[in-house]
Write a structure and sequence with these properties.
The chain is mainly α. It has 11 helices and 6 strands. Belongs to the peroxidase family. Classical plant (class III) peroxidase subfamily. Belongs to the peroxidase family. Ascorbate peroxidase subfamily.
Length: 316
């Protein structure tokens, strides 16, 4: 028997009724169709899971989990430089096209994105998470809302705590959700602030605690005036697997971003990093809870959103 559970959330000044099995009657195959789309895309492009997970973060932290990041146009969230390297849009659009054939006007783009990111984690070896659905799509997407609400890779711990706290997320959630960096990749510009040019023009690490061999690998991969299209795996050792290697990397001083490394250097979060590095099951259990909270930020219910016909544009 299909379990139908109603769950109430109220986070980031927004509330909505979400339910596990929300589409069980109106579109029974919704989650299956999203999963198949993600699996197909990931089989041909291994970078897809990481892109989908990052896309979800950038959506939920700005205007809540309402697919506002998917809206195209001048002055939208996509226009911000921090969002120009986002990917995975085509996967969401593909899933939407399939769903509109079988269940027209039923499944929101916000739910598709949340489900796709959930599936991306499971498909790369992470925990299976049963998330509630019933989100509606937002009608506002503004570039001005981006910078005050997203975490920059060069942030200090206090800056990250401020952003996460404003979304109803705890210090533990911050550490757990940073574990998303166990998959995916980043452009050289996202960690260039960790290096400086010396008098001879060579790059040297600013953070002397950064593992020397790792720093050299990054410099070799991203020299001065490197091609902007070059990327580096967030977790080079197991870049395609959702596991706890990310936390082991932090202990070994091999965190890619400054915002990664500070999780181990700061006494407030060091113990959690060590715990997750030593116990993958503990990380997975915590991920399940924190991911549920992430996908519930600022969700919109009836009267506060819509079901878009196309994920890239609001309904007319």
């Amino acid at each position: 028997m299909f379990l139908f559970v109603v769950i109430w959330f109220s986070l980031a000044s927004a509330s909505a009724q979400l339910a596990v099995g929300f589409y069980s009657l109106s579109c029974p195959g919704a989650e299956f169709m999203v999963r198949n789309t993600v699996r197909s895309a990931a089989s041909s492009d291994p970078s897809v899971p990481g892109k989908l997970l990052r896309l979800l973060f950038h959506d939920c932290f700005v205007e809540g989990c309402d697919a506002s990041i998917l809206i195209q146009g001048n002055g939208t969230e996509q226009s911000d430089p921090a969002n120009r390297s986002l990917g995975g849009f085509s996967v969401i659009n593909s899933a939407k096209r399939v769903l509109e054939i079988f269940c027209p006007g039923i499944v929101s783009c916000a739910d598709i994105l949340a489900l796709a990111a959930r599936d991306a984690v499971e498909l790369t070896g992470g925990p299976a998470v049963q998330i509630p659905t019933g989100r509606r799509d937002g009608r506002i997407s503004s570039i001005s809302n981006v910078r005050p609400n997203i975490v920059d890779t060069g942030f200090t711990m206090d800056e990250m705590i401020r952003i996460f706290s404003s979304k109803g997320l705890s210090l533990e959630d911050l550490v757990v959700l940073s574990g998303a960096h166990t998959i995916g990749s980043a452009h050289c510009s996202s960690f260039s602030d960790r290096f400086r040019q010396d008098s001879t023009g060579k790059l040297t690490p600013i953070d002397t605690s950064l593992d020397r061999s790792f720093a050299k690998e990054l410099i070799d991969r991203c020299p001065v005036a490197a091609n902007p299209s070059i990327t580096v795996s967030n977790d080079p050792q197991t870049s395609s697997s959702f596991d706890n290697q990310y936390f082991r990397n932090l202990i070994a001083h091999r965190g890619l971003f400054q915002s990664d490394s500070v999780l181990f250097s700061d006494s407030r979060t060091r113990r959690l990093v060590e715990d997750f590095a030593n116990d993958q099951e503990s990380f997975f259990a915590s991920w399940t809870q924190s991911f549920m909270k992430l996908t519930s930020i600022g969700v919109k219910g009836d009267g506060k959103g819509e079901i878009r016909q196309s994920c890239s544009a609001v309904n007319i």
